[in-house]
Write a structure and sequence with these properties.
Elements (H helix, E strand, L loop, with lengths): L5 E3 L1 H12 L4 H15 L8 E2 L2 E2 H15 L9 H28 L1 H6 L1 H4 L3 H9 L2 H27 L3 H4 L18 H15 L11 H16 L4 H18 L5 H25 L4 H4 L3 H4 L10 H18 L34 H33 L3 H25 L8 H14 L13 H6 L1 E5 L2 E4 L3
Antiparallel strand pairs: 1-5, 2-3, 4-5
Helix pairs in contact: 2-3, 2-8, 3-7, 4-17, 7-19, 8-10, 8-11, 10-11, 10-12, 10-18, 12-18, 16-17, 17-18, 18-19
């Protein structure tokens, strides 16, 4: 008995052809080019453009137009993921409403601070990417390759204390930013995530690299980012490493191989530390472990007192002026930090309190903080829980597939809680993009065949821009 042929439109024909050619739409290639710059080098490439319109805003606009044309393919079945989309929409709406009211007062400063909310639009781009299994898989595999390349760039860059990037060109503009420069925090995080891919036996991005070379690169990466004094980036890498270990804990085959590689790296690392101690090296300052001690509240030498005073001042100002919606966009926030009130007028103004969660509270008040807490709960912690505690073989396989990206989004949030990262594109774009890709399982829409393999197997012919698929 033969069923009626299933007619697929030109869009499905193009998707099938793209999967066979292993190519992506030019918009996704443009987005990948941007991700290559910020993943391998850091925030330097984000300053390409003419203020206030930089490369990231152009990529956002083009990606949104492309996503809107494909939005009909997005099917979100989970109640939790639907609730997450509502929270993201409300988060953007509240930010846009506040920013529009603040623009008349603060002009360009209000627009600049609005990056806190408008980069969340990349969440919808991530949803559309995930709506096509073939494109999502190819997009993710190429993005992972950039993390591997960040290890190759980051090791000499970090060991040289940033001197390598100084050999590159300086971008024109008021900031005079280095094209290949970074704040250090994002580069350390990306190098750490690249090392996780090198350790992961299931990583296709590193599959062509021999195991011994992988281990040497991981050891070199550990030495490199141990020379960076930032606390947040190293803590974020550590937590991402724990997430990856937890995801592989219940996997009998890949888990054992991963733990063997980790064991080799730990033994070699301990041997290196023992050798350094034998030569009389003081490991605490050598590995910048004293920076962790400076984080204890009350330590005047570190930045803990500086940050706590700023956060306390912001809390008092928000609760006094506008508890519901905060101080808005455009206020530089420096007047709430006694350590910053006497800076020279020519000095670069620190607009963000070095903690993205506090930034949201300062700009958007309790309403924004509640929306952000819901986004973290449904978009970060719930996928983390599902990845660590899978139920059944299908969920277990899905957890392995998504484990790296769960670790990456956890690392991004933790790192942004210690510095000025998600207030700009270098960390905001990856965070919101991954959030969208994680919050919807890749699937084709109801007008197409459920499994791409079935689509390949049952294709009989193509004519006049349509496919006839017959099955018995």
């Amino acid at each position: 008995m033969t069923a009626a042929p299933l007619q697929l439109g030109s869009e499905q024909v193009q998707a099938l052809a793209a999967s066979r050619r292993k190519t992506l739409p030019w918009v996704l290639n443009l987005l990948l080019l941007y991700l290559a710059g910020i993943t391998i080098f850091g925030k330097g490439p984000t300053y390409i453009g003419v203020e206030p319109v930089f490369w990231g805003e152009i990529v956002l606009l083009v990606s949104l137009v492309w996503a809107l044309r494909r939005w009909h393919r997005v099917v979100i079945r989970s109640i939790g993921d639907r609730a997450l989309m509502v929270l993201v929409c409300c988060f953007i709406a509240v930010g846009a409403a506040e920013a529009s009211g603040n623009y008349l007062t603060w002009k360009l400063d209000a627009l600049r601070d609005s990056a806190v909310w408008y980069y969340a639009l990349f969440y919808f781009v991530g949803l559309v990417i995930a709506s096509n299994r073939d494109e999502a898989s190819l997009f993710a595999s190429r993005w992972k390759l950039f993390f591997i390349l960040s290890v190759l760039w980051g090791i000499p860059e970090l060991l040289s204390k940033g001197r390598l990037s100084m050999l590159g060109p300086i971008l024109p503009g008021s900031r005079s930013a280095l094209l290949f420069g970074s704040s250090g925090s994002e580069l350390v995080q990306n190098v750490g995530l690249g090392c996780l891919l090198l350790l992961n036996v299931r990583s296709r991005a590193a599959s062509r690299i021999p195991g011994s070379i992988r281990i040497l690169l991981v050891l070199a990466g550990m030495v490199a980012f141990s020379q960076w004094g930032g606390r947040g980036s190293r803590i974020s890498v550590l937590l991402a490493f724990i997430v990856l270990l937890a995801v592989n804990l219940r996997q009998p085959s890949s888990g054992k191989r991963l733990y063997r590689r980790v064991g080799v790296v730990v033994l070699l690392g301990m041997a290196g530390l023992a050798g350094a101690l034998a030569y009389g090296v003081d490991l605490i300052p050598a590995l910048h472990l004293d920076r962790l001690r400076e984080a204890v509240p009350g330590q005047i030498e570190g930045t803990a007192e500086w940050r706590s005073e700023w956060w306390s001042g912001i809390y008092r100002a928000v609760m006094e002026q506008n508890p519901a919606f905060g101080l808005g966009f455009g206020d530089p926030l420096t007047e709430y930090n006694p350590f910053l009130q006497y800076l020279d007028e020519s000095a670069l103004v620190l607009r963000s309190p070095h903690n993205f969660n506090v930034t949201i509270f300062a700009r958007m008040g309790l309403v924004g903080s509640l929306l952000w807490s819901g986004i973290l709960l449904l978009g970060v912690f719930l996928p983390l829980w599902r990845a660590v505690t899978p139920r059944g073989p299908k969920a277990s396989g899905e957890a392995l597939h998504r484990g790296f990206w769960v670790a990456a989004i956890v690392a991004a949030w933790v790192n942004a809680s210690f510095g000025v990262l998600m207030e700009g594109p270098v960390m905001a774009i990856p965070f919101w993009l991954i959030l969208g890709m994680l919050s919807m399982r890749p699937s084709l829409n109801t007008h197409s065949v459920r499994h791409s393999g079935e689509l390949h197997d049952r294709t009989s012919n193509a004519h006049n821009g349509r496919l006839d698929i017959a099955h018995t």
